[in-house]
Q: What sequence folds into this?
């Protein structure tokens, strides 16, 4: 008898030991492809019935796989961040693992609860069968025990959800999705017409981290000139020269950027009075196909310049 | 015995609830589709057209920009082309007209060129290597049309082919709300 | 054309006649059963014969239209084609909704007729009467579906002379085209046991002759179901090209759910046989299996999974949902009211007895079914409530079903050793030693081979444990009964268990230890990965009337080339990738060709998967099938009297 007990003890100990060893064992570094596979298994193909991007052969799935491969190759983002990047584009519906919050958590909690309830019912049934003469349990104690079981189930479910569910920051920050430069530029642009000082400051912040950002250089200079027009002459002159320099630098940085050339033409004429240079700049600006707003500003000017230069 | 009856009742309630929810669910209609990008700054798009002219979305701030994701073999894309042409012509006549671009989705330059040669449409057609632009916008199926405002924010997403007149209507609405 | 019209009219007339026959047959059977009126009940077979003939007729008319390429019918326009080979064309009839309902009708009518013939000596009994009533009612409803919303005989727009043919994915392999009939053989098969379960509730009794009938039938249907699921997995692996066997997508889940409850029933019914217990469980499991069949058909056919709102716009969705609702409502009411009448006296003595184990098994399978059902249906509910799309995908199911699967392995190991009616702890500790040692050995072997991770290791250990237990049972049986030790319910069942264990272990291995890599190959250069070499021999393009395909010939480890390919079906504009697999006992080398592919560049991008133990999945399936067959062979010759007594219900 005791020999058998020893045997069992040995078996159980051995198993636990080997399992512990095995589960803690390092399975080797994940290759990039493994990492791509793991990530793509967490993302659903947007045009399929719940297939993961890893599984699906649809073209949209291929594009997403290519994107994931690119980002894994760059090595900048973590798995969670890459999944979040895709989710921020396609919406939360591409997450294959429901989140652990809100209505979604129910899908984790309910199975745990049902399991607990059923196991408890089983246990109760077995107890009743083993002792056929059972003290009549009052309705109250039955209800109480049922409530306890439900709470335990709920708790268990929440634990499972926490551990298993997606833990991703899915709130899209109001500041924008791209890195902060783009979001600062976006905010500055919004502020632009009405709150020039704020806009100038925002462009300035962009330039702190990215001094060669052509858009920031151009628009900051332009807005400074605009706001300086209401002040006295010395300030206006100062602004004029700094603006010209800045716009010139922008053109150097990116000769194809139309806005800088256009603003240069406008400023040179309106604040500098030089029609001829202005005309040159304006012509070059129009060659570069400026966007509608800027083109609108420039076309009125072009008319005036033509009149003045007598062409 | 009690447990069975309780179980049956519980099951009945759950199934009834499921059926009720299913039957009473109501779809919502509307032109614009949902996207987490609506109202956000548009993703950065840096690519070249099929004529090798470089393009950068950030440089187009100041204009309304319309992106049409397109593939020359997709039937709804072909169907919507006349509506798109009309829209583009209208916009070209305005001083603050929207700039229309085609984003080529999983197609060869040659096929796109051939299509536009046969069906006209002289706006730039932009390449999308590996579908990176499509992924950046969350586009899974063509055609899709996106409208981006002059400040660079995404304003509208239309799934499927654009019905005649819809784009003009939506642009008018957007311009009006922008002017406020 | 008059002829085309005639076809459609004939088809519809046949369907209407079938509906009327089934409807009045059901009515007559119900009335006869209620009043215990033998004369009325003996009329029922005439209705069955007529209805069956009509079902066969309707299917034949459709096939005739398809074979003669009669493009005046809208359905033939949809799935017929002049260029499809004859066999695929024949099978095209069931490749879309309306035709598949016709096939369902055909098979259901066949089953009803078979059931009627089987019970021909007992047709005057109320129990059988009620069962026939239920079966005919279901048949009538399907006739109605085919006459109404799923009408296959709609006349299409004129002037069409050719069609696109069935979905190209279905034309890859002949077995795939015949998958739906096998699917329906098992889905529809569950109608008969269901009918008898309802009949038992209605008649208020279930003599164990009922058991004998339903058990055989359910096992057969279950067998087809298992085969169908395995076939689906094999198709997924060989054809779809993502290297996996099971994706937990809603269509797969729809076929898995009835299998789960069906498996629970097969085990639980043994307790009813031995001790008359768990009757309410068994009746409920039969009802659940059939209801899940209908729910599954609803989920996959109504479009509700693409979008909740799609379902109410589809023609057939609401009808199927109504059917599901009615079935569930009627069943629940019946169980509620009549469940107590079925209940036998007596109880399960100990959780460590065989009955106890089966009850625990029932609970486990109930949880399993609940998890799969919840995951499949949850997106619908969320979309209906919060108007947003949600996906519950593979990772969810994997995470929750792994503990369930491990528990199943554990019970499989322990249950065969437990005695009936007694506390078996002593016997457990005696008889499970050897299997436990096998389990430990399996664990050690896995560790030596390099496995890691708690779940897969547990799977190996418990698999060894369960396998050892099953084999031990077989060895004992053979020692006592020689060759007869392999046949019969218990022994055949053990063999089936061995098959299941192999499948579980193979799944654990392939899920956890697959390695993959995308490789750019250039002709003549050799690439290395995971201990194998790959050399691109050539890139070949082929064209035929329906498609162009590009194949990359890759030599693996210097052997014969394997050719993964991408095929573009020109008429439909669909790209289909086909993998190429080198199989061996230890692992499969699975190759796919990745787009974009340029034919003349001498380059190809392939993706390589090294998947361990896949072959064991199919070996396990065959062992299951083999075991099922052996289980049906009687384990000892029983006297005529014994059989008679059993059927009559003493």
A:
């Amino acid at each position: 008898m005791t020999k058998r007990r020893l045997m069992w003890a040995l078996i159980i100990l051995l198993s636990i030991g080997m399992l512990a060893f095995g589960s803690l064992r390092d399975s080797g570094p994940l290759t990039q492809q493994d990492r791509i596979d793991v990530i793509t298994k967490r993302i659903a193909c947007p045009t399929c019935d719940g297939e993961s991007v890893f599984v699906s052969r649809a073209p949209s799935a291929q594009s997403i796989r290519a994107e994931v491969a690119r980002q894994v190759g760059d090595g900048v983002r973590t798995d969670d961040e890459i999944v979040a990047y895709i989710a921020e584009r396609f919406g939360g519906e591409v997450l294959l693992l429901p989140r652990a919050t809100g209505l979604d958590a129910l899908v984790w909690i309910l199975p745990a609860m049902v399991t607990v309830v059923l196991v408890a019912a089983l246990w109760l049934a077995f107890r009743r069968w083993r002792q056929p003469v059972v003290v009549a349990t009052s309705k109250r104690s039955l209800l109480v025990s049922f409530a306890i079981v439900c709470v335990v189930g709920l708790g268990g479910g929440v634990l499972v959800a926490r551990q298993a569910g997606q833990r991703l920051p899915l709130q899209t920050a109001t500041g924008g999705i791209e890195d902060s430069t783009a979001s600062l530029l976006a905010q500055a642009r919004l502020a632009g017409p009405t709150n020039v000082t704020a806009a100038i400051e925002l462009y300035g912040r962009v330039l702190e981290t990215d001094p060669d950002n052509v858009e920031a250089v151009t628009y900051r200079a332009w807005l400074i000139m605009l706001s300086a027009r209401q002040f006295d002459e010395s300030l206006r002159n100062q602004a004029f020269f700094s603006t010209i320099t800045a716009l010139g630098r922008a053109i150097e940085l990116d000769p194809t950027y139309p806005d800088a050339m256009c603003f240069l033409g406008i400023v040179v004429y309106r604040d500098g009075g030089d029609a001829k240079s202005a005309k040159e700049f304006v012509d070059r600006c129009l060659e570069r196909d400026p966007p509608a707003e800027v083109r609108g500003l420039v076309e009125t000017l072009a008319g005036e310049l033509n009149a003045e230069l007598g062409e | 015995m009690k447990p069975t009856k309780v179980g049956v009742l519980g099951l009945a309630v759950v199934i009834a609830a499921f059926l009720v929810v299913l039957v009473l669910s109501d779809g919502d209609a509307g032109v614009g589709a949902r996207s987490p990008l609506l109202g956000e700054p548009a993703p950065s798009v840096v690519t070249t057209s099929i004529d090798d002219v470089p393009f950068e979305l950030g440089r187009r701030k100041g204009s309304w920009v319309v992106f049409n994701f397109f593939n020359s073999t997709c039937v709804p894309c072909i169907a919507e082309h006349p509506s798109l042409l009309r829209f583009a012509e209208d916009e070209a006549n305005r001083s603050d007209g929207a700039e229309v671009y085609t984003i080529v989705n999983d197609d060869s330059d040659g096929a796109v060129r051939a299509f536009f040669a046969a069906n006209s449409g002289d706006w730039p057609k932009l390449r999308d290597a590996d579908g990176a632009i499509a992924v950046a916008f969350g586009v899974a199926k063509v055609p899709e049309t996106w409208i981006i405002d002059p400040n660079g924010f995404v304003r509208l997403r239309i799934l499927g082919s654009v019905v005649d007149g819809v784009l003009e209507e939506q642009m008018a609405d957007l311009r009006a709300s922008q002017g406020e | 054309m008059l002829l085309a019209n005639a076809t459609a009219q004939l088809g519809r007339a046949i369907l209407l006649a079938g509906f009327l026959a089934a409807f009045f047959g059901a009515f007559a059977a119900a009335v006869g059963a209620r009043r215990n009126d033998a004369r009325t009940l003996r009329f029922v077979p005439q209705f069955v014969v007529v209805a069956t003939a009509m079902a066969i007729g309707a299917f034949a008319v459709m096939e005739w239209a398809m074979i003669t390429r009669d493009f005046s019918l809208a359905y033939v326009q949809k799935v017929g084609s002049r260029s499809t080979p004859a066999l695929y064309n024949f099978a095209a009839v069931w490749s879309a909704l309306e035709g598949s309902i016709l096939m369902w009708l055909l098979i259901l009518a066949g089953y009803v007729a078979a059931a009627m013939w089987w019970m021909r000596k007992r047709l005057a009994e109320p129990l059988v009467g009620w069962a026939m009533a239920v079966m005919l009612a279901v048949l009538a409803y399907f006739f109605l579906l085919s006459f109404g919303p799923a009408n296959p005989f709609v006349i299409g727009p004129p002037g069409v002379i050719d069609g696109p043919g069935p979905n190209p994915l279905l034309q890859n392999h002949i077995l795939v085209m015949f998958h739906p009939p096998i699917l329906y053989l098992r889905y529809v098969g569950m109608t008969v046991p269901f009918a008898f379960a309802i009949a038992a509730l209605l008649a208020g009794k279930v003599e164990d002759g009922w058991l004998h009938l339903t058990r055989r039938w359910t096992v057969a249907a279950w067998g087809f179901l298992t085969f169908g699921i395995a076939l689906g997995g094999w198709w997924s692996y060989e054809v779809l090209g993502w290297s996996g066997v099971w994706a937990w997508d809603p269509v797969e889940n729809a076929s898995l759910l009835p299998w789960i409850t069906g498996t629970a029933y097969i085990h639980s019914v043994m307790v009813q046989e031995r001790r008359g217990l768990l009757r309410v469980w068994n009746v409920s499991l039969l009802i659940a299996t059939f209801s899940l069949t209908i729910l599954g058909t609803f989920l996959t056919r109504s479009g509700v999974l693409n979008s909740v709102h799609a379902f109410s716009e589809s023609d057939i969705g609401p009808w199927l949902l109504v059917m599901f609702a009615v079935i569930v409502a009627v069943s629940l009411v019946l169980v509620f009211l009549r469940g107590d009448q079925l209940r036998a006296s007596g109880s399960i003595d100990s959780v460590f007895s065989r009955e106890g184990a089966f009850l625990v098994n029932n609970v486990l399978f109930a949880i399993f079914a609940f998890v799969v059902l919840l995951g499949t249906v949850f997106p619908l509910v969320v979309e209906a409530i919060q108007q947003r799309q949600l996906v519950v995908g593979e990772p969810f199911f994997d995470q929750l079903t792994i503990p369930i699967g491990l528990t199943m392995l554990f019970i499989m190991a322990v249950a065969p050793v437990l005695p009936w009616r007694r506390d078996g702890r002593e016997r457990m500790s005696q008889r499970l030693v050897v299997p436990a040692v096998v389990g430990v050995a399996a664990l050690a072997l896995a560790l030596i081979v390099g496995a890691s991770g708690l779940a897969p290791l547990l799977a190996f250990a418990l698999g060894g444990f369960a396998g050892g237990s099953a084999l031990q049972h077989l060895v004992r049986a053979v020692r006592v009964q020689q060759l007869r030790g392999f046949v019969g319910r218990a022994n055949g069942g053990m063999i089936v268990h061995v098959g299941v264990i192999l499948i579980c272990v193979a799944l654990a291995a392939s899920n956890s230890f697959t390695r993959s890599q995308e490789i750019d190959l250039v002709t003549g250069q050799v690439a290395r990965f995971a201990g194998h070499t790959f050399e691109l021999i050539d890139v070949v393009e082929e064209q035929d009337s329906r498609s162009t395909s590009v194949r990359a010939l890759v030599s693996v480890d210097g052997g014969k080339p394997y050719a993964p390919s991408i095929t573009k079906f020109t008429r439909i504009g669909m790209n289909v990738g086909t993998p190429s697999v080198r199989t061996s006992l230890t692992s499969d080398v699975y190759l796919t060709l990745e787009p974009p592919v340029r034919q003349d560049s001498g380059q190809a991008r392939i993706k390589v998967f090294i998947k361990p133990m896949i072959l064991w999945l199919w070996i396990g399936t065959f062992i299951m099938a083999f075991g099922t067959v052996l289980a049906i062979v009687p384990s000892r010759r029983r006297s005529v009297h014994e059989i008679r007594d059993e059927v009559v219900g003493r």
Summary: DSSP finds 13 helices and no strands in chain A. Chain A touches chain C through 58 residues (CB under 8 Å).
